[in-house]
């Protein structure tokens, strides 16, 4: 059985963050009595964009993380990458609520995480040496 602990932990944390992002939107919708669309509410627009931005980037990054972990194994570098993604996504969400530095930190960590995993994946794939099939020699009759 193949277990990818970094990817599994990062995906679990990402699911919790996505739940939190949705909860923040729902609570604001109830408080402002906006049940469809954004009602022209700037805070709601920002929170909706934070969740959509999460949905745009995190799935691809998790796929890259899983493929790199499957190909190269679990490493401290990958644990740091997963942590950077999680921290970045929390910072980005808080930044969309007005903490401008958080938004910049979140964007930077997300982009660097994606780029780092993409470069690692390309490097691993381009340097992969598939073992040549073993030659089997038989002596005697087939059977």
Q: Strand tally, please?
A: 0
| Amino-to-carboxy terminus distance | 34 Å
Strand residue percentage: under 5%
Discrete helix count: 4
Features:
143 residues; mainly alpha; 4 helices
What does this entry look like structurally?
With 143 residues, the protein is an all-alpha fold. It has helices at 5-32, 42-72, 76-96, 100-127. Helix 1 packs parallel to helix 3 and helix 3 packs antiparallel against helix 4. The chain is elongated and about 85 Å long. The model has no long low-confidence stretch (mean pLDDT 94).
Topology diagram in text:
Blueprint: H1 5-32, H2 42-72, H3 76-96, H4 100-127
Helix pairs in contact: 1-2, 1-3, 2-3, 2-4, 3-4
Produce a short descriptive summary.
The chain is mainly alpha-helical and 143 residues long. 76% of the residues lie in helices and 0% in strands.
């Amino acid at each position: 059985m193949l277990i990818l602990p970094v990817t599994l932990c990062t995906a679990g944390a990402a699911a919790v963050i996505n739940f939190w992002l949705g909860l923040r939107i729902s609570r604001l919708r109830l408080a402002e009595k906006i049940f469809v669309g954004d009602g022209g509410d700037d805070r709601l627009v920002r929170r909706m964009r934070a969740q959509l931005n999460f949905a745009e980037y995190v799935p691809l990054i998790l796929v890259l993380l899983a493929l790199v972990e499957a190909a190269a194994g679990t490493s401290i570098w990958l644990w740091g990458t997963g942590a950077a993604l999680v921290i970045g996504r929390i910072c980005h969400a808080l930044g969309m609520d007005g903490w401008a530095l958080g938004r910049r930190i979140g964007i930077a960590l997300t982009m660097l995480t994606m780029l780092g995993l993409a470069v690692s994946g390309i490097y691993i794939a381009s340097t992969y040496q598939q073992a040549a099939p073993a030659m089997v020699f038989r002596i005697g009759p087939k059977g």
